[in-house]
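Case study 2.
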Amino acid sequence: IEKTSTRLKLLSKLIKRKDIDTLINACDAGREGELIFYYILRHVGAKKPVKRLWLQSMTPDAIREGFNRLLDNSEVESLAAAAVSRSESDWLGGINGTRAMTAFNSQEGGFHKTTVGRVQTPTLAILVEREEKIKKFRPQDYWEIHGTFVTDQGSYSGKWYDEKFSKDKVNLELKPERLWKKEAAELIRDKCQGKTGQVSEESKPSKEVCPLLYDLTSLQRDANGRFGFSAKTTLGLAQALYEKHKVLTYPRTDSRALPEDYIATVKDTLQTFEHTAYDKFAQQILASNWVTPNKRIFNNAKISDHFAIIPTALNPTKLNEAEAKLYDLVTKRFLAIFYPAAEFLITTRITRVENEPFKTEGKVMVNPGWQAVYGKSVKVDSEEDTTLIAITPGAPVNAEEIEIIAHQTRPPARFNEATLLSAMEGAGKLVEDEELRAAMSAKGLGTPATRAAIIEGLVLENYLQRVGRELHPTPKAFSLITLLRGLKIPELISPELTGNWEYQLRQIEQGQLKRAAFMEKIADMTRHIVEQAKSNRGETIAGDFSTLKSPCPKCGGVVHETYKKFQCQKCDFALWKILANRQFEVDEMETLITQHEVGPLQGF
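Prediction:
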């Protein structure tokens, strides 16, 4: 690599020096750091003994401690095997898959570069599948009934709901407060309007614990949601805060816990916040002795190569605005995790009018707990952040106004970087529960360190476009996923299968799987991709293609959509699709065909 060739020459010269008898690998403490060292060593051809400097923090104390406890290279051999396997599998799948798909798409002439990758293409499939759901979505009308109830103490509102409702696992649009016929809503309104109701009420305490400490993916998600930072930007800022300013620990981590022997270090770090904006919270934690053994925070079993991202004992100076925002995000989470849970009192009031139930919910904060660290930046859901007016037990209420509100179901939301990172972490599944998501991340798409680059690569190759904060798949993306489905290459479009490759790489890291066995599977997959591309042509690709309603303008036969064109089954009429630039909708194609009474139209 030209720009770093002088560094490589210098390293080669130093490694070959006669007075050097041992090499110390001081690359990043992880799989990719191990790969860089391995490649340089192989390039130089050095056979000297190797020791491993394992740093998870860049503070002077951590560096001194690392040199005092150098690892033997044999302790990280499995990590090197996993690193080389990852590199070679990405190359084998990517280079052969890209050549095969490019050749396939260029059969009819021209050169249509079609890049694919072991991780990037299943990620693209997630976005295309969501876009397909949005395009197929047909809104449905539904109605809600809202009531305003008056008592001597004042008025409050409530929403009608179906007490007999049970959740449907298939149709998630069905909800207890929704009515699908306006007539049914009107009957309830007319029945209850102006009538007297009885009230029952139940209050119960509720607690909300602070989210876990940040790993890179969760930090990228939050920074995207709060500040609009791309995953690439967040990684760059975190890397600068780690390397340049030395105020954050190693950022390319997938762990959200700290080592069990880190309690003293945490207390020392809290002491360093004196005379900063965080002093009040740090002193509260220390004075209350909240830093104690806690498996949710300190857990060796939940640490792989690195621990969670937290501030170091150095106070930041000369941070730019973006760096300061990210540092603040990490530091507040670090402080908040030691605070007690936020406490709420949730009140559910049922107002029964003519035996029709209306529900009102109120959520009142009793003790802010960890939310105190965030001040006013953390709010309870606006719909629930209501303090109910007190009512006299057993006193009647009057249904002053019963109103029918018309709504329509909405299509699923498009992905932004925050939600796409979550989907990649859960191998295509959007998992809300962060503890469950952490458990699934072993089978996620890519790693925290590579996900930003994967998204950027898809944008660079014109598979994705950024529209505001949303990520939109382009027609080129639809074309590729359609092709891979038709060629029956699930290895390149299934997030679950790709997640399983990542899981197997972790098994190699832990010495539970042989590198040769993994690479043989990758070689088989690569052969399958190339064979499928060789043995099929555009018109033989099967898929979920639509049949046009209008007859062939040349012979009156039925026009079918194939991978590359709209073609008559009887004659030689064909209308080509411009795959790389635009995807025609079926109704647009009908209009185009009827405008041309002569065929064939291959040159269109």
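The first strand starts at residue 23 and ends at 25.
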